[in-house]
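User:
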Amino acid sequence: MSNNLLNLFCLVDGEATTNAFPVEIESTKTIGDLKGAILRKKPNDFRDVDANKLSLSRVSIHDDGAIHDKTELNNPRALLSTLFAASPDDNTYIIVQRPPQVHAPVPARPSPPQLKSIPKDLLEQELEVILNDIQLRPTTPSVDPMEVEAFQNEALGPFFKRTLPHGETARDIKLVMLGLELDKLTRTSDGETLHSIVEDDIGKYCDRRVVAMVAPSGSGKTATVVDLASKHFVIYCVCCIPSTTISPGFKDPNFITLAEDIESMYRSVIHRNQGRSQCAKDIDSEVKALAGERVKLEFLARLLFLQHLLDDNPDLEPLQFFREQTTKGAFTIGDLVYKLKEYDHNTIQAMLSKVQAKLQSILVSKRLGLVIALDEAQMPSSTAKNQIQSKFRRGFLTPLSATLSNMRATLVILGTALSLQDADHVYSAIAKPTNFSRITEFPRFNEKDVIKTHSKLVDMSDCEIPPAKRRKLTGRVRFSIDVVERLATRCSTQDSKQAILDDAVDKSIEHTMNGLRIGVRTILESDKTNEAARLLSRMVLAYHLQDAKISFSSQLQSDFVDKALCRLQQHPDGVHLIMDEPLVVEAVEEELKSSGKDPTFIDKFQFQIDEINTASGFGYMGSGMTADLAFLTACPPLVFPDKRYAGSLAIKFYSNDVPQVKHKENETSSDIRACFLMTDGDKLNSTLAATRHSYENAGIPSNVKGILRIHLEFPRVKGVKPVTQVRKDPTTRAIDVMVYINNENMDSFFEESIKAYRRDMIKLKKLIKYVCVS
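Assistant: Predicted structure:
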């Protein structure tokens, strides 16, 4: 940016910050000039509004969404340089307000240009005219393979092994185009692959399949679509807005225009109905119909682009078509959209039917399928709603999927944060339960896969990734791919090969961690009930306690965890899920701690009491005593710091003071050595006796040399005041610390005057209070 050029983020009053748009203007210009620049940037939003009538304010909007430091910009002659002495920070916005609505008579508006209506018998001729207008548009140039190899050899240096996929130019490495070369095949719950679904749809005129691919970023969704595009023609659409960074590395400018047009339609309908009695349902139906018409026009342009390429080259390869859409072809599609806006919706519908019929006849004869793929589908679901007046708004994903599901193509919807609930919106939109499928389980990416991936793509001789770091790269192929991309952009050529690899791995882990932490932080900041924090704490517990196995009481909970950046896999037992992504767990743990919600202490404690109550809840097989035995013989760190020492907790709540006899029984309840024993012996219960014998044979009772036993008895014990004491068995010489807490010593139990441990004491004291009043 030059020294006198300002980049100001502007925001229409009442909209979310995600709809902010940048305006570049010289600092020597005035407030009046800024108003004109805003009008030119957003002509559809301020149609029939005089620039001088706009009201501007400079504000600061922080993460909490609140507006601070509001300054009215009233003087149209004021220089911007006097208002912005330095470049504005990320929290600075210019709020734009339209002039208030005037109810006095206004001059009649000029009639909009007449849209063309073409008779059906002239449609073919009209389509030829449209396609002839774009004949001179350049397509993506071919790239010399020798030039690609020469560049990559230089970029990768000692790591060069083979030529990797390139982008638009030879100097552009695009590893997303590897497709499923590295990933493993994924299937629906019925065992179908995406290829088999598409091939089954070839030749169908209606009831084509709709597939929702649900998984976090880096799981292999886009790779699956790229692999599909190597065999079948895929109309590829990346749902994005200007302020987003899209994971496939491609921003779809035509979808940005589509989203802006839809937003403008919503705003126009709402503005037109202000002060009227028209019900929200009617308004919603109107904007749905308008959105559907615009979607049809958009995909008519994309289908026409495919027809245009096939007319020029009948032997066009599907993968080349995929490349064209993400490079120069995007501009051609934009030209087609602009041209098609000259026609009315009846003509657009007729053109769409004719183009689909022609493409189907061409592709069916070659046994090629046609697919519409919506990548990053969470964007229309989450950004094009609740921005103006939520009662009039419907998520864009619903009309988008409803319209596309009626086309002669298999519809595939995938997204980084697309939840199963969003997939249900798709299901309800298409209203055809027989043709809707979900792909939610993607194969795990383990340490062997990490080694295989790197060995396949780059030369790993004379260097290796340390096991601890390699473990962090497991879970998703994206984590390993990022390392390769960093090797191609290494800064130093003087370092050793191992040093270069170490640097690439460290930066990749740091980059991935930052992204994961941002996602977790967003969840925690919007967590008003603390339920998200509790569920994320369960993830940490499951990972540390029992091989990352976890179970959920509802589909919504497992869907939430999946949406919280963690891939879930079905355990062979059919009950538990596997959550085995070290970086995700580490990110969750760090964010819980930094937010004051420590997963290893308060939340873990709460989880034991309210959520688990049995060892089976921690993932140990069986029920009742079987699970308890497995839990205790495994000696998990939560209870056993090592196998000689343990921690135990007994919580007893009563409506009245605890009787002496009951208090004595309570004392033995926390003795881990006495598990699976009855006060009158074990002969009356053969199952209990067998469990006890198994426990003794494992050596756990005899190995325990000491237990920290915390007893909470409420409200208090009758006739005696239990005191904390150290008990030593004269025979075994085992030492137990018995800690008693009740209503009498709750507030005075911990001495907080010792500065070195004061914070720990306060924390533990709050923990116990928290347990007792929950």
